[in-house]
């Protein structure tokens, strides 16, 4: 009986493996890729094999998804997706939330924003959404004011009050950790901060509040949101195992949305 049960179990596992679906999911470096590796472990027994494709910038993953080179991506927040869809005409849709990674202000020169000098150099991301996010953080901290009606995507041209005459350096988001030698402060996304060995908990001068609108999301092409693999992907991401991994590994620098 034991031998028969073992054979049946092996056959069942073999059949499940044969029926497993392969998908490609695009991520950015750092926590998005690391978390997706854990998601892949949870998804495999569910019959979903996830191949993780890492991209070094924020532009290509949506283009690759729209072109059919990926089944899904997991790297961006809602305002960025909306901006990309408006600018590039992508027909993409959110299927689930993932994490929030508060943007932080870092410096190699000062330890308090009160020390920021007149004419200080401020590094911010050069993509519209994250650059706007950085400016909104500066406004929340009382360092600048932005013109009314700029919404979530202001640019340095929308700065209406700048008492310290701050100078804004718009740089590729991945390069901002390296900019600290040349700036008084740089405003850096958590994934790139972590990849550079910076601690959002210990090395920031200031951070976004946890209730910002910048929750990250899983995105697929319009029409794929009801596919079985899409549901399994979200279920695997929202598992207790993945939540425990995030809470332990990132020690509050990355917050789960579920």
TrEMBL record:
Membrane protein topology class: Lipid-anchor
NCBIfam families tied to this protein: MetQ/NlpA family lipoprotein (TIGR00363)
Family stated for the protein in its record: Belongs to the NlpA lipoprotein family.
Record's subcellular location: Membrane
Main location: membrane
Top-level division of the source organism's lineage: Bacteria
GO cellular component, one term: membrane
Protein name: D-methionine transport system substrate-binding protein
Pfam families: Lipoprotein_9
UniProt keyword Membrane present: yes
InterPro entries assigned: Lipoprotein_NlpA (IPR004872)
Gene3D superfamilies assigned: Periplasmic binding protein-like II
UniProt keyword annotations, A-Z: Lipoprotein, Membrane, Palmitate, Signal
Signal peptide extent: 1-20
